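Re: that chain you flagged

S.,

Sorry for the slow reply, it's been a week of failed gels. I finally had a moment to sit down with the sequence you sent. For the record, here it is as I used it:
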Amino acid sequence: MSQNPANLALRFALEPARLAVGHGPVIERPLAALDAAIRAAERRRAFSES
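Prediction finished late last night. Pasting the structure tokens below so you have them in one place:
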């Protein structure tokens, strides 16, 4: 999990039991997927800033 305080605050503010995005299926217990998406975005950002 990211140590960025803003991302941690967002992550803990969002504790959904289900997540429905676009036209795809509803994701049950999406916290692991949210954590992975935050980590991937941070890696892309770090790469683009270097």
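What I noticed first: The longest strand covers residues 18-20.

Talk soon,
D.
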